[in-house]
# Entry
Amino acid sequence: MAKEPMFVTEQKIEKAILVGVDRGISDWEIDESLAELGRLVSTAGADVVSAVSQRMKSPNPRTFIGKGKVEEVLELARALEADIVVFDDELSPSQQSNLERELGKAKSDIKVIDRTALILDIFALHATTREGRLQVRLAQNQYLLPRLRGMWAHLAAGRMGGGVGSRFGEGESQLEVDRRMVRNRISSIRQELKKLQADRATQRAARLDSGIFKIAIAGYTNAGKSTLLNYLTDADVLAYDQLFATLDSTTRRLSLPDGGDATLTDTVGFIQKLPTTLVEAFRSTLDEITQADLVLHIVDASSEQRVEQMRAVQEVLEQIDAHQIPQIIVFNKIDLLDEVVCAALARANPGSQLVSAVTGEGMEGLLEHIQTAANASSKLMEVLLPFDRGQLVNLAHQRTTVVSQRYLETGTWMQIRVPLLLVAQFDPYLVSDSLAPDTERDLEPDTELDLELDESDC
# Structure
């Protein structure tokens, strides 16, 4: 018997209209900001069919944009059969409600969302670990709470859609029930996150106690952070040419040129107008940056907005109190630039490193700079530890980098790179170069410090 033919129903791709307001107070030109918003929309799976902007000193308190501009967007939505209108700034609950009512004249099921809701949708799409999904759910519920309008059926189905949904108008009592439900969800998610954050804190404490040099990768979304991590550590972290392709922090071991080790942690990408709810929800992930000894600030050298992107990253680093940690500015993707532009970048940014995480160009120089930073955070010492101070030998193996070690008649001679916090414990046993061993017998081959790192996404 012949098989019945299979019919695959393709999901309709939504058509989106972008709307921005130029208030003259941003580092970003309105066209650049809307272009980035368009990339966010594409990442979320919709097509941009038009973009409009308006210059005004302050947003309209009722509809964010002026009445005439609302009419213009309405006519565009009708003509282009748009499904969604995306605003480049965060809307108040009343502004969103009023806009949905006005633009609903073009299409009854048209959706009005803002930049925050769009980013939350993308985060929900890309979160893979349990902690990442909980962080996104927390941010979604915090965003949704002030926007509830009797969404009892939507909530009962458990579909917390980042501010997108029907408003059924069931009255004040139902609204209070909905708000209580969302508050309970927020409380429950926070409790679950606390348990996971305790595990993360334990892993972080182990790295702190080890004395190993800790490096965090920070940067604008899609700057190539995951690709850089993969190149330097032979990791297999997902790396797509897409905004917010990865959200969950990942820690890997990095071998330094002098034979020592460091940890290298990839973190969530930043973006201009990063929603405050996301900064709060991803606080534990961002703490990986605040606990680092060095931050690699990765910049997409091929982006025309690289200066603005660097400022946006610095703003977030200040927001999480990580701006005082030593940084190396790393201009990535130089394989997409010519030599003249690369030379101009180097002159304009002394001390920065120009690399390509795809071709490997410039990576040796970057590692040398990382080594210099690691050396600055530690001290190379030669010590002679008496045999009755075996606990110091153990401490050296656990929390320093052992460069060399020999047995002498009077004790254990060691050349070690010591974190500054531990220098005082080894100071009493310092020896001069003239006392360094030259003919004594070798030890058995040193066993490398085997620091247990979580090789899965943290």
User: Anything to note?
Assistant: The mean pLDDT is 82. The radius of gyration is 27 Å. The longest strand covers residues 47-55.
